[in-house]
């Protein structure tokens, strides 16, 4: 099973983002995951389009924006101008989801839908036709370094089995590390977002190599249900 690694800048040193990005790119990052938070949808604030535009000028891998905001629509055009490749909006914060996803695609970006841990995949029944990827949250959004919620594994298995999800890119975000990545890949995850397990290590190249090797392992670790 092939999968992509998307380091999340949330756990990087914000005072030296240029070097942090260069290190994970040199270490083989496939995407850069950018967590945009507004202090309303989630109890934390990060960065928005101006900072992302600055990062885009020296980043060499596609930018993957995860919008944890109460109102995503006003950010979409600035994110496209900044050079973002794909955008996930939360289904819980998107009353007009079809319009929002259509706007993302019309702006030339890949649309995705993010689901909180308690949000059922049945809410995607219609929207799967309009997205390029689903971002399954395996922690409650807002902070890095939280513990992986194990029920995410069966959620991914069930999502993969939904009509129209056969070749869907399933991203997983939260608590992804060497101990959780193998069962996630086996369950059907194709893009693994990892914050603290990459930027919490001094050697980012080694951290990414370890995730890649662990994700390719076959047997699920004991005690982890798939
Ligand atoms: C959390 C963010 C994640 C976060 C994951 O709300 O969406 O992208 O950076 O951090 P870790 O990998 O440390 O759980
Ligand atoms: Zn995220």
Structural notes for this entry:
The chain has 226 residues and is of the alpha/beta class. It has a single domain, classed as TIM Barrel. It contains 8 helices and 8 strands; from the N terminus they run βαβαβαβαββαβαβαα. The protein has an 8-stranded parallel beta sheet with strand order 1-8-7-6-5-4-3-2. Helix 2 links the parallel strand 2 and strand 3. Helix 2 runs parallel beside helix 3. The longest helix has 12 residues. It is globular, with a radius of gyration of 16 Å. Bound molecules: D-xylitol-5-phosphate and zinc ion. Zinc ion binds next to strand 2.
Quickly describe the structure:
This protein is of the alpha/beta class and 226 residues long. It has helices at 17-26, 49-56, 73-82, 97-106, 152-160, 181-187, 196-199, 204-215; strands at residues 4-7, 32-37, 63-68, 86-90, 110-115, 133-137, 169-173, 191-194. It has a single domain (4-217), classed as TIM Barrel.
């Amino acid at each position: 099973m092939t999968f992509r690694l998307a380091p999340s800048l949330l756990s990087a040193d914000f005072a030296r983002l240029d070097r942090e990005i260069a290190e994970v790119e040199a270490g083989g990052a496939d995407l850069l995951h950018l967590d945009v938070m507004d202090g309303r949808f989630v109890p934390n604030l990060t960065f928005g389009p101006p900072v992302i535009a600055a990062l885009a000028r020296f980043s060499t891998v596609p930018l993957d924006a995860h919008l944890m905001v109460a109102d995503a629509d006003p950010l979409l055009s600035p994110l496209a101008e900044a050079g973002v490749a794909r955008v996930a909006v939360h289904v819980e914060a998107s009353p007009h989801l079809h319009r929002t996803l259509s706007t993302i695609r019309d702006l030339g970006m890949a649309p995705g839908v993010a689901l909180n841990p308690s949000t059922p995949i049945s809410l995607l029944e219609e929207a799967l036709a309009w997205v390029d990827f689903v971002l399954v949250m395996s922690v409650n959004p807002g902070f890095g370094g939280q513990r992986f919620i194990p029920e995410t594994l069966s959620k991914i298995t069930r999502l993969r089995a939904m009509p129209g999800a056969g070749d869907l890119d399933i991203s997983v975000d939260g608590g992804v590390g060497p101990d959780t990545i193998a069962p996630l890949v086996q369950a059907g995850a194709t893009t693994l977002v990892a914050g603290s397990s990459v930027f919490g290590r001094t050697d980012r190249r080694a951290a990414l190599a370890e995730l890649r090797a662990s994700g390719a392992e076959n047997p699920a670790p004991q005690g982890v249900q798939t």
